[in-house]
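Section 5: illustrative case.
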């Protein structure tokens, strides 16, 4: 089969896509900075509140901080994915990391009391299945990387 030669239009399109991907990566960096500021403000406001030593307030702070931090980790992994894609590297590991972080975040914030018992069990089963598949992928990819001697 004949190979298609790039034209000026396809070259321009490729460059445009690369520029847009770089712009998205830049926006993710801005989101990351805003998220870190938000995390700091959330912790600062909670500590300055008059009822900061109440157990309910502390638990609420911990839940909020963990939720924001896990979102920030997802943003970091998305950034790594875009950068790896732009640099024509493998994005499998970054996607697996982002997936693991996202599922763990969902597990942490999951409130089974908000659902019927059947729905709660079903959702829990889906989370277990997702984590199992992602961890299996994580293990296989790391084993492959270790055997090739190409650690990130």
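Designed sequence:
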């Amino acid at each position: 089969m004949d190979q298609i030669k790039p034209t000026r239009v396809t070259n321009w399109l490729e460059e445009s896509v690369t520029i847009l991907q770089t712009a998205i990566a830049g926006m993710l960096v801005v989101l990351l900075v805003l998220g870190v500021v938000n995390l700091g403000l959330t912790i600062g406001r909670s500590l300055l509140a008059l009822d900061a030593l109440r157990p309910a307030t502390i638990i609420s702070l911990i839940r909020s901080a963990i939720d924001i931090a896990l979102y920030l980790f997802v943003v970091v992994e998305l950034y790594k994915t875009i950068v790896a894609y732009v640099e024509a590297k493998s994005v499998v590991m970054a996607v697996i990391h982002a997936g693991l972080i996202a599922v763990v975040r969902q597990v942490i914030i999951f409130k089974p009391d908000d659902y019927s018992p059947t729905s709660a069990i079903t959702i829990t089963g889906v989370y277990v299945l997702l984590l199992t598949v992602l961890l299996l992928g994580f293990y296989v990819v790391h084993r492959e990387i270790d055997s090739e001697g190409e650690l990130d």
